Amino acid sequence: MPRILVVEDEVAIADALLFVLGSEGFITDWTRLAGEALSRLRTEAVDLVILDVGLPDMTGFEACKALRRFSDVPVMFLTARADEVDRIVGLEIGADDYVVKPFSPREVAARVRAILKRSGGGAAGVGAQTQTLQAPVAREGEFAVDEPLAQIRFLGRPLKLTLHEFRLLEKLLSQPRRVWSREQLLAVLGQPADVGYERNVDGHIKALRSKLREVDAQREPIQTHRGFGYSYQPAAQDG
Ligand code: CA
User: What are the distances in angstroms from CA 140 to CA 13, 145, 219, 232, 233?
Assistant: First the structure.
């Protein structure tokens, strides 16, 4: 069983997380202080850390930086503020995912499973054993979206996507042929549209396209609509 350490000073939030994670089969531990979390993480095997940004003794960012000096354990941030999201998304901190409060504990549990899957299960290697388990596939066709595992297959091949690439591609696939503006796609990433992030979308799309080309050099499923945004064009035989 994967072991999750929850570092959160708000008891009600910690309680809800521990309850849901426990009911989904995770072994859970809880501490409300970053310092205690760090000392435990030095000696105990933990598969994933859920780390609140606003903690009494130091920020979650500082804690994560300190953690990264001795451990690669996956970290999911809990955050309450958009400016904190910007720092997490900047990836200067080494986080694997984040959720914004208020959140659904069930969604957190699903994200935890997705991260463990991507990271190969962390210290306990659980992901390697569950790799062959097939979760329900939301949509079939040239693309197959596996929402709980945050995975997308293109022509049967699993794509190695970052979290942002996954969210963008999932959004494009959700409504074939619909043209999404950069602002709408930024919203998918949880970023404000008014501070020059538009080019980030272009960068993620470019990276996505090169990953799709590795699978099929001819197909260009993502279309650019100059001056507006992007759309997913299904293959001709899909209609
Ligand atoms: Ca807090």
Answer: 36, 8, 17, 15, 15
